[in-house]
Amino acid sequence: MSRTPVDVSDLGGEGGTRPTRAYVLHPDIRSVDRGRLPEHALAEAQALAHALPGLEVVGAEVVRLPKAHPGLLFGTGKVDELGTRIGDLDVDLVLIDGPVSPVQQRNLERAWDVKLLDRTGLILEIFADRARTREGVLQVDLAALSYQRTRLVRAWTHLERQRGGLGFVGGPGETQIEADRRAIDEQMVRLRRQLSKVAKTRDLHRAARKKVPFPVVALVGYTNAGKSTLFNRLTGADVLAQDMLFATLDPTMRAVTLPTGKQVILSDTVGFISDLPTQLVAAFRATLEEVLEADLIVHVRDIAHSETESQAQNVRSILAELGVRDETPLIELWNKADLLDEEGAESVSRRAERAEGVFLASSVTGQGLDAFFDAATMVLDDVRHHETFTLGFGQGRARAWLFEQGIVESESQTDEGFVLQVFWTDRQKRNFRDLRAKESGS
To answer: Which residues form a coiled coil (predicted)?
Structure first.
């Protein structure tokens, strides 16, 4: 079974010698309130299409509908009108920005004589193209199979046949669609087992990181907000950072020293997006578990985007859905300040100054990042972590100070001194280090 729900590689003529010609449609259904302008939704759908290699978008339009037609999505007149336009443009693939039922997909493909992908299918294609790690590939496979399972009624005439068989193959009278569905279910069980093993390995890595007394900073945000550009600026890593939706798919983590001298583990995560397919929300929940373990979440926003507020709300909703704790510190970095005109920059700057925990900056030019780093360091200085060390018998004042702070979890005695396990902040650690140095020097 192919890894992606629809193979678009063979749509571009003989031998794939030309790009796949795609036409993008955004159904603006009057009875469905999506809380955003349809023109903006269409622009995002086009950006999604450009994110898939080998596609050439030759046209796009918003199609206004009073309601969705159960069999064709659009009315018959509109289907004919669009069919003429699709034929004139020699389109290979139609991308519909929204959900399309299996019956609607089959009927529209027959009517227009093209392949068709809905929003879920397109995002799955992009994720399948971008996944690099073992876990990412397995998660895409699982999501794609879940998607395929619901679409077994697509134009396959053999699915209507019945077949006999021995009991261990599939009982007498089993339809081909039932056999195909069972095969998909079995493959999904195998993938879940493999993912479980990968998850255990990831848990071991996370446990090992916890022994390193560095706080974890997770970069989150709407796709294409500039997280990877900021990540690269701080780490010197060569993470894919392009003006493209879903440029980053697999989570990347690096140990990094902030300009303030603070050592942290920085995590770059997959970008969020509105109307993320249900299959992918479930499949990539594990990928985003690093956010749940973070000591600081940095919400990177594209402040120059026309829909920055709705994008930010979408990110907040997904964080809440993931179960991020309310007490986890969060800083908003209003990125791409370099793309604002003078008047817009002044207005946004005033808003950022009035808000708590908000910083206007540019990951490209470095503008405003120093204030952000200072604030992040201040927050992380109050993050507590476990540490174990030995104090000599002659360092009674330092030992007493630890108990006064209420940070000693356990203590035992050896021939060399007192072995203490503490749970403290970096600020307390620095103060203890200074006290210990004074005691040793006195």
So the answer is: none
Question: Do the domains 384-441 and 14-129 match in fold?
Answer: no
Q: Confirm if 96 and 48 have CB atoms less than 8 A apart.
A: no
Q: In the 8-state DSSP scheme, what is residue 35?
A: S
Every domain of the chain and the residues it spans:
14-129, 130-205, 212-380, 384-441
Does the pLDDT of residue 134 top 50, yes or no? yes
Taking the C-alpha atoms of residue 94 and residue 108, their distance in angstroms, rounded to an integer, is 10
Half-sphere exposure of 234 (CA within 13 A, CB side): 31
pLDDT digits (tens, 9 = 90+) for 224-268: 888 888 888 887 755 444 444 454 444 577 888 888 888 888 888
CB 61 within 8 A of CB 124: no
Q: Which helix (H) or strand (E) holds 127?
A: helix 119-130
- b (16+ CB within 10 A) / e for 200-235: eebeeeeeeeeeeebbbbbbbbbbbbbbbbbbbbbb
Structurally, at CATH architecture level, domain 212-380 sits in 3-Layer(aba) Sandwich (3.40)
Taking CA atoms, 88 is separated from 21, 81, 340, in Å, by 12, 11, 40
Mean pLDDT along residues 376-383: 84
pTM of the predicted model, to two decimals? Answer: 0.69
Question: What's the longest Cα–Cα distance across the chain?
Answer: 92
Contacts of 330 (CB under 8 A, 6+ apart): 296, 297, 298, 299, 357
Q: How far is CA 283 from the centre of its chain?
A: 11
CATH class of 384-441: alpha beta
DSSP helix/strand/coil, 258: coil
pLDDT value of residue 243? 47
- Written as six digits, the tokens of 25 are 């449609």
pLDDT digits (tens, 9 = 90+) for 170-224: 444 456 777 788 888 888 899 889 888 877 777 776 666 566 667 889 999 988 8
CA distance 22 to 261: 49
The fold for domain 14-129 equals: Rossmann fold (3.40.50)
